[in-house]
Specification:
Helix content is 31%, strand content 20%. It is built from six helices and twelve strands.
């Protein structure tokens, strides 16, 4: 897992400037995403998911965290991929955790599901797992699991080839990723590979995306053109 090496002593004015840059960039990227022809977006969705499903580093994984795509947010679709993961072995059989937002303070859990029907629409009409299963049992939280996950599939608004990721501003993923990183270190687990899914139009020139010390870098990007390994961990697994 990559971490950012920015100076934690960034002053308040500098942070304000960075947050303003991010807001402007988010507006620009959202406009770009709205302009993508739906049929082209669908082609890219299928290409990205097929690349992941065929990748050796994905095939060899045992457990993963992945986001549930929301078409209204124009996120790269994950339903074909997740449906495959939830199939019985040998085509599926991986342990899958998906996000559930807990509050407005950047707290998000990743809960285990075993079928797509475990998802319900929240007040924002975004699918997420119910906190308990059909039998009334609490779903397993990945931060309380006894085994590590190998991969985290991440959404975002924009990315670059140095690993920078522009989220939607809620801080949910950066907070979760830090918590999981700390857990893996405590338990002496191998850090999971952080893989962002990106339309071609979301990959920006290096240096365009501003970052702070709390922003987490991704290890690899998957776009319709293929896998872009970024960190040494990604290069090692990719090759």
């Amino acid at each position: 897992m990559s971490t950012n090496c920015n100076n934690d002593n960034t002053n308040h004015d500098d942070l304000d400037a960075i947050f303003k840059q991010k807001r402007v960039l988010r507006t620009q990227v959202r406009k770009t995403l709205r302009a993508i022809d739906p049929s082209l977006r669908s082609q890219q969705d299928n290409a990205i998911q097929d690349i992941i499903l065929g990748a050796p580093w994905f095939k060899s994984s045992h457990g993963l965290c992945a986001y549930i795509s929301c078409s209204a947010l124009r996120e790269v679709d994950t339903f074909k991929l997740l449906s495959q993961v939830l199939q019985p072995p040998p085509s599926g059989g991986k342990k899958l955790y998906v996000p559930r937002v807990e509050d407005k303070n950047s707290n998000m859990r990743m809960l285990n599901i075993s079928r797509i029907d475990d998802l319900v629409a929240n007040s924002m009409n975004i699918l997420e797992p119910a906190p308990v299963d059909a039998d009334g049992n609490a779903r397993e939280d990945v931060l309380q699991a006894n085994e590590p996950v190998d991969i985290l599939l991440l959404p975002g608004l924009a990315f670059d080839k140095s690993g920078r990721r522009l989220g939607r501003g809620g801080g949910y993923y950066d907070t979760f990723l830090k918590n999981y990183h700390d857990l893996a270190e405590t338990r002496n687990w191998k850090q999971p590979l952080l893989v962002a899914l990106s339309y071609s139009q979301q990959i920006l020139d290096d240096g365009v995306i501003p970052v702070t010390s709390t922003d987490v870098l991704v290890d690899a990007l998957v776009s319709p053109e293929g896998v872009i390994p970024i960190s040494s961990a990604a290069f090692n697994r990719y090759h």
